[in-house]
Amino acid sequence: IKPMHVNEIIARIEMILARLERRQLELDAKSGKFTGQLRDISVAELIESLGVKRTTGILNLVNANNKSGQIFFKNGMVVNAILGNFRGELAVYQMLPWEEGTFSMVFEDVEVTDEITVSNLGLLMQGYKRLEKRQSWMSQLPSPQAIFSIRSNFLKILEKKQITPDVAKFLELFDGHRNVLQIIDDSHYEDLVTLERIVKLYQQGFLEEIKQEAPKLEFEIPQITQEPLLSQEEFEAFNKRVLRQGKINKGVILVLGTVGSGKSEFVRTLCGLEYRSRTIKNVFPHPIDIGKILLNKEIEIGILGVSMEKQLQILLDTVENRLIGYIIMVDATEPENFDYLGYLIKSFRSQYQLPYVVAVTKLRSAKAIGIETIAQRLGLESYEELMPCNPSDKKNVKMILLNMFAPYPEQKVYEMPVTIDHANN
Q: Is the pLDDT of residue 400 over 70?
């Protein structure tokens, strides 16, 4: 997936806020604290939600590099913030990009000077502009995880010049061990200034990237013992529709959806006894569904089910050369996710010119949104059709697979069966 842009951040905020409203921020009354992971609720989402709740207290934040800061609230308004030598609005802006780490909201009276000159909304809007600028600088570097050292030619230039202590301190950060995000955290400059200087040094050829082997996600896909899933006629149709990219054997189909969308049950139903669930610690918060299906007597493909995670790109990098298509699962009872799923569909469609299908579960639930409304909310093209899905029905699941189509207008191969899933699926 492409790097996060402002519309994606807003979509994520809307999705999480809707979930928070349902939970009503179940606070621990005994300890007077509300704690969690930033991967689940971002800094911007916390500011928005705590503002709506008119909360008073101190929001303590710790990021993945163990940098800690505080944001102070009075009646829901952000009145001050501290992060190292940064204060007020600038401190908030440094913490807004934190995607990994922990938070702890302590509900108590605060006695701090009000150094914030704008409302929460103004603070977040300016923060979004800065995030967009930050992403623009970041896109000019190999990766946020890239590690740099100073080239010898630049060291020779520096030997002939008298540099200030500030510059010397900054250049010391390029020690061949820190990545870009760590340099930003350890720099005494604000993040945008730091990134701009890194980009200029990199573009002028003064920095050398230290290549590191990317971690490989290794998982064992079960051995095939099942009967072929498709008849000869069905296989010929599937072969023409999906396997025409040339990645015939050992290909992988990705099944993507929220935790409650029926994704895991879909993979389990499709793969039968060849289904496994695998947890990859420190990479994915939720287990990955792994399985394999035998299409005919000779052709087998892998099935990987994964939840919508910020770390999705890691898995995509691992299977990209084997990816032959994808299935996106939409829960009809979770309208708060529609905007982000629509963004995801567009991103996949533009980045991967591969066959796909969008399947909708829980259509018979009393809380389900109508399928036409879902299609509008997802922003689907006129040739894209939502497929009703019962993830526990083997015939229905197979029809979903057979109705994968290339990302341009083309008629479906098979009509969907009448069976639609029940509310508890």
A: yes
